[in-house]
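Quick one, probably user error.
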């Protein structure tokens, strides 16, 4: 006999309860944006039922379209939809803060004590696990998003465009959005969110914010509210940069960090990997805040900590403030900490502005298939891009040297075992990373 399905919607969620959820999420959100989005879907859609599948995907598609870290923006969006502006700010800040403090601590250890064999062994085991986490999350997201052959074809074309043709991600987004715009008019049934193969687990039970839940007052579009929210956000960005420039000089390292990462935040279409070449060019080659080796090590640290991968900007800022000795040789730690906070502030502030100002406009398009179809197509394209990023990272983890002569079969075995653990045994990311880190230590010990 089947278990009866609970047809009652969940109870109202208090701001305090939401606070502790976002606080916990900030410490367990491993696996990059794909893993973080999958984790939020499992928690908020399937387990807690705070939001329905269709509204979750609608918000996700909007965040995919924006520059900036989409997983962070999705957390801000859901927090804002549930508890107004303060809920969005709480969700976004708590999603970022743990990784900021962890990377500051790791940056201090890295610069103070250098590389240690134990750390190298841990990283050796964790890197293949991260490949598995991204691949497994891409599989889960693709199984929910790619509802028909048209959307699967868009994902395949997006993969080929970025992996084989090396086309820029904004161009892929534009092409996918155009195909969705056309498809929404020619074959609208192919671009409906939560299509015929939607998960029965989420389609058969109501959510707190369900498909037919009326849009709350604070989420209704108003030109005046859009102008006010956008103006406040832009004012914060300008006033904070001007304050830094007045205190330390417009040509100071802190002012340069603020302006550089503001520009970088506007270029992060497709996640952190899409903007890393720009960050490398500016931070390493132009400003010389850190070396190429330090940049690569920072990326490895970013891959192994919770939170968005773009948080590598905190490491870049920390190392830049430290090496430039912005407060003098006796205050290197303070210089690194302040520079890390400045880099993080100017990188993530645009994301908060986009969501808090543009959220009501997005909510007003939920029932308009002609407006949602482009976002659905973009979501399908991003699945292909995520897979290409996993392949790109796997190539760097598995290849021992240039060419096809040597491959790291042990790293491949760790990734395969991690994929089986994630997809078949539903192992949590923290347990998986601990196990793989231990495996890496054993391999390095006996090598």
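Nope, works fine. Designed sequence:
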């Amino acid at each position: 006999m089947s278990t009866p399905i609970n047809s009652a919607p969940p109870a109202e969620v208090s701001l305090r309860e939401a606070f502790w959820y976002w606080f916990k999420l900030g410490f367990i959100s491993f696996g990059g944006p794909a893993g973080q989005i999958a984790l939020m879907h499992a928690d908020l859609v399937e387990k807690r039922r705070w939001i329905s599948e269709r509204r979750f995907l609608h918000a996700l598609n909007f965040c995919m379209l924006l520059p900036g870290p989409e997983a962070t923006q999705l957390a801000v969006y859901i927090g804002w939809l549930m508890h107004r502006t303060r809920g969005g700010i709480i969700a976004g800040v708590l999603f970022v803060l743990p990784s900021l403090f962890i990377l500051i601590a790791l940056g201090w250890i890295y610069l103070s004590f250098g590389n240690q064999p134990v750390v190298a062994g841990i990283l050796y085991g964790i890197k293949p696990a991260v490949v598995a986490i991204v691949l497994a999350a891409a599989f889960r997201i693709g199984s929910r998003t790619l509802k028909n052959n048209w959307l699967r074809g868009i994902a395949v074309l997006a993969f080929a465009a970025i992996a084989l043709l090396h086309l820029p991600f904004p161009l892929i987004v534009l092409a996918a959005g155009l195909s969705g715009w056309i498809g929404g008019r020619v074959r609208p049934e192919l671009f409906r969110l939560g299509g015929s193969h939607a998960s029965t687990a989420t389609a058969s039970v109501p959510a707190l914010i369900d498909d037919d839940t009326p849009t709350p007052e604070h989420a209704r579009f108003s030109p005046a509210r859009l102008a006010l929210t956008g103006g406040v956000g832009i004012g914060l960005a300008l006033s904070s940069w001007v304050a830094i420039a007045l205190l330390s000089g417009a040509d100071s390292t802190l002012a340069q960090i603020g302006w550089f990462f503001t520009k970088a935040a506007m270029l992060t279409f497709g996640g952190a990997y899409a903007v890393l070449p720009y960050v490398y060019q500016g931070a390493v080659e132009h400003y010389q805040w850190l070396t190429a080796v330090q940049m690569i090590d920072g990326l490895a640290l970013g891959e192994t900590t919770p939170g968005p991968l773009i948080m590598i900007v905190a490491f870049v800022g920390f190392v830049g403030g430290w090496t430039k000795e912005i407060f003098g040789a006796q205050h290197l730690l303070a210089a690194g900490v302040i520079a890390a906070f400045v880099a993080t502030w100017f990188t993530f502030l645009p994301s908060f502005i986009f969501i808090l100002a543009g959220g009501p406009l997005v909510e007003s398009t939920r029932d308009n298939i002609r407006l949602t179809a482009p976002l659905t197509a973009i979501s399908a394209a991003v699945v292909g891009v995520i897979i290409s990023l996993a392949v790109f990272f796997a190539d760097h983890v598995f290849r021992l040297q240039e060419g096809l002569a040597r491959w790291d079969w042990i790293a491949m075995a760790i990734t395969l075992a991690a994929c089986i653990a994630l997809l078949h045994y539903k192992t949590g990311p923290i347990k998986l990373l601990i196990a793989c880190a231990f495996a890496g230590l054993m391999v390095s010990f006996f090598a």
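The chain has one domain: 12-204+220-447.
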